[in-house]
Specification:
alpha/beta; three-stranded antiparallel beta sheet; single chain; 18 helices; Methane Monooxygenase Hydroxylase, Chain G, domain 1; binds zinc ion; 3 domains; five-stranded parallel beta sheet; Rossmann fold; Helicase, Ruva Protein, domain 3
Length: 465
C-alpha cells in the first residue's frame, strides 16, 4: 500500500466507510462528496483507490470525459445506473475522474455553444443522485478529481454535495523519496544508487513521473546489458522525463537551431550571473518531446520553498534570459519565449500578491491563499480588491518583470562575446555539460575568478514605462 498518498483528510473518510454506525448513531451526517483537487499526474486516482482499499469497500469509477462520448440522452442514464449499482454494494466509493468534463459552470461561458443540453442533463442527474441518498441509506462516498476547480458549477460545491476539498499537490523532497523507495523496490538497484540524491534532482515530479523515471532507468540499464540499475541510468532517465523522450527525428532548420541555441545560452548566462538560481548543469539543443526544442537543465541543491526577494528576482531574470538573448542577437523574439514569459509573470504576481514583497501594498496577502497557486499556469484568484489596488498590483508586477528583463538584457549585452562563444560551441556539439560548461559560465564573474559562491549587487534601474 502506497501509504505516502494517504492524507489525514482521507483517513477520516476511511473511518466513515469502515464503521458508519459510529457516526450516524450519534446523529452525525457523513459527508457525501469529497473533491480531490490538484494538477494532473499527482496520483488522485491512486489516492481514491487507496481509500477504498484501506476501508475494504468496493470501488466504482468513471471518468467525466467518457460521458462526452456517449450517445445523446445516455449520460444521465449512466449516472443513474452507476449510483444504483453502488447503493446495492454500500458502503462503497464512487470515483469520478475529470469531474470538470461534466461539471463545468453553466454560467461561466466556457466557450461551449450548443451541445450543452447533454452535459447539463448529466450534471443534473449527478446532483439529484447526490441529494437523493441520505440519512437512511448505507454510506456511498463520492470522490471526484479535478485540476480545474475554478471552472466547476457552484451547484456541485454546495453543502451536502462536494463540500469537502482535499488538495493533492506534487510531492515535496520527503514525499518524492518515499515514492522512489516504493518503486525502486520493483527493480534491481545498484549498491551505490542514492535515492535521496535522485529525489533532490526531481523537484516538480509527480508520483506518476517518478514511477516512469524508475522504469526508464531500468530500461536503460537493461539496454546496456547491466544486471542492476545504476546512477548513470537514473541520470539519463531524469533528462528523458524532464523534457520528454528524445526525438532525434525532429530536425530543426539551421536558423531555428541557431535561435534555440542562443535562447538556451541566454537562460544559462543570466542564471549563472544572478543569485538564487540553481546551478546550470547542462544545455542541450537536441529536440526532445513536443514542447521543448532545447532546454537548460538547472540542478537545485535542495528543495527550496523559501526564496528571498533577490533570489526570486534572479529566477525571473533567468526565465527572461532566453528571450533577452534573442533580442540582443536577432533583434526580435520568437514564440518559443512565451512560456518563459508566462512563468516569469506568474512568479512576479506571486511576489506581489502572496509573498508580501510589495513595496506599494505592504504586508497583506492579496491572493486568496491556496486555491490556485499550485495548479501551474492558472491565474491567481485575487481577494476582491478595489480597482485602484488592482491597478497598483498590475503596475508593480509589470515593474518587476520589466526590471528583470532589463537586467537580463544588460547581463547579456555585457557578456555578448561569451554568449556568442558558448552558443557557437553549443551549435556544434548540441550538448554542453559538466565542468566544461561550468568553467565557461564562470566567466560572467570575472571578479570572482573561479569561486563558485556568488554575491551579486542589485543595481537599481529606473523603470522604463
Ligand atoms: Zn526559454
Amino acid at each position: 500500500m502506497e501509504t505516502y498518498w494517504y492524507k489525514t483528510e482521507l483517513e477520516e473518510i476511511v473511518e466513515f466507510l469502515k464503521s458508519p454506525q459510529r457516526f450516524t448513531e450519534i446523529g452525525a451526517k457523513i459527508p457525501k462528496g469529497v473533491l480531490l483537487v490538484g494538477p494532473p499526474g499527482t496520483g488522485k486516482t491512486l489516492m481514491a483507490k487507496a481509500v477504498a482499499g484501506e476501508a475494504g469497500v468496493p470501488f466504482f469509477s468513471i471518468s467525466g470525459s467518457e460521458f462526452v462520448e456517449l450517445f445523446v440522452g445516455t449520460g444521465a442514464a449512466r449516472v443513474r445506473d452507476l449510483f444504483e449499482q453502488a447503493k446495492k454494494k454500500a458502503p462503497c466509493i464512487i470515483f469520478i475522474d475529470e469531474l470538470d468534463a461534466i461539471g463545468k459552470s453553466r454560467a461561466g461561458g466556457n466557450g461551449f455553444v450548443g451541445g450543452n443540453d447533454e452535459r447539463e442533463q448529466t450534471l443534473n442527474q449527478l446532483l439529484t443522485e447526490m441529494d437523493g441518498f441520505g440519512a437512511g441509506d448505507a454510506t456511498v462516498t463520492v470522490l471526484a478529481a479535478t485540476n480545474r476547480p475554478e471552472t466547476l458549477d457552484p451547484a456541485l460545491l454546495r453543502p451536502g454535495r462536494f463540500d469537502r476539498q482535499v488538495l493533492v499537490d506534487r510531492p515535496d523532497l520527503t514525499g518524492r523519496l518515499a515514492i522512489l523507495e516504493i518503486y525502486a523496490k520493483k527493480v534491481k538497484l545498484g549498491d551505490n544508487v542514492d535515492l535521496k540524491a535522485i529525489a533532490t534532482r526531481t523537484p516538480g515530479f509527480a508520483g506518476a513521473d517518478l514511477a516512469n523515471l524508475v522504469n526508464e532507468a531500468a530500461l536503460l540499464a537493461a539496454r546496456r546489458d547491466s544486471k542492476v540499475v545504476e546512477t548513470q541510468d537514473f541520470a539519463e532517465a531524469i533528462e528523458r522525463v524532464v523534457a520528454g523522450l528524445e526525438k532525434k527525428s525532429r530536425v530543426l532548420n539551421e536558423k531555428e537551431k541557431k535561435i534555440v541555441a542562443y535562447h538556451e545560452v541566454g537562460h544559462a548566462l543570466v542564471g549563472a550571473k544572478m543569485s538564487g538560481t540553481d546551478q546550470v548543469e547542462k544545455i542541450s539543443i537536441v529536440p526532445r518531446g513536443m514542447a521543448a526544442l532545447g532546454y537548460t537543465l538547472q540542478v537545485p541543491t535542495e528543495d527550496r520553498f523559501l526564496l528571498n526577494e533577490d533570489e526570486l528576482k534572479g529566477q525571473i531574470a533567468t526565465l527572461l534570459g532566453g528571450r533577452a538573448a534573442e533580442e540582443v542577437i536577432f533583434g526580435s523574439i520568437t514564440t518559443g519565449a512565451s512560456n518563459d514569459l508566462q512563468r516569469a509573470t506568474d512568479l512576479a504576481e506571486q511576489m506581489v500578491t502572496s509573498y508580501d514583497m510589495s513595496e506599494v501594498l505592504g504586508p497583506l496577502a492579496y491572493d486568496k491563499g491556496q486555491q490556485n497557486n499550485f495548479l501551474g499556469g492558472g491565474m491567481n484568484a485575487r481577494r476582491a480588491v478595489s480597482d485602484e489596488t488592482a491597478k497598483e498590483i498590475d503596475k508593480e508586477v509589470k515593474g518587476i518583470v520589466e526590471t528583470a528583463h532589463q537586467e537580463a538584457l544588460s547581463i547579456l549585452k555585457e557578456n555578448k562575446e561569451l554568449l556568442e562563444t558558448i552558443s557557437e560551441q553549443l551549435l556544434e556539439k548540441e550538448v554542453i555539460e559538466g565542468n566544461g560548461l561550468r568553467e565557461m559560465l564562470a566567466k560572467v564573474h570575472p571578479e570572482l575568478e573561479g569561486q563558485t559562491e556568488q554575491h551579486v549587487q542589485e543595481t537599481e534601474e529606473p523603470l522604463a514605462v
